[in-house]
Amino acid sequence: MNKIKVHPNVAAASLALPAAEKGEAVSLTVWRRSLLFNGKGFTVFDTNGNLVFRVETHSRGSPREVVLMDAHGVAILTVRRKKLSLAEEWLVYDGDGDEPAPRRFTARRNRNLLRTKSLARLSPPRSLDGTGDAPGCRYDVEGSYAGRSLDMFACTSCASGGNQRQRVATVSRKEAAVGPDVFRLMVEPDLEPALAMAVVILLDQMNAS
């Protein structure tokens, strides 16, 4: 049985992006644990054991804001729960989320699974005039986060008025892993690996709330 490596090679850190540029899917191993002592978060590494992403929090319970960092601790995306909202909403920002960081998506949790299979939906920000969503791709997430079985679909509008759906990422249990804290994140070339990991963070936050 192959041993699962849970201590990434920081010295040879890589974003695993060269494979994506060649039109190949990127396979990442997600460890639901921080590298910091007594910390909470995630550690993500590639198939060579190189550190790719890290998430480190010290809050008890579910923190209102989580920052996805690269191997060197540079903020890539910030996931922030929206305050004073009737619906359960999270906002995804570039970088550390400080002003004037652009907002990438608004994420909503779906509690009514009788009407749709979608667990959560990421929509682009509203247009400047407030009349609708800005042009861009919407993402739907289906499956079970607790079971570590998820599919992420990119949804775009067609000229005929319909929608096109394409699977762009999956989460699955990792072979030989004991428990749900180590799992695989497979990202297709059409999606940023960082955004796929932000979706994992979102689902983790939604399930903890």
TrEMBL record:
It comes from the Eukaryota. Pfam families: LOR (PF04525). Signal peptide: none annotated. Belongs to the LOR family. PANTHER family: OS05G0311500 PROTEIN, PTHR31087. This is Protein LURP-one-related 8.
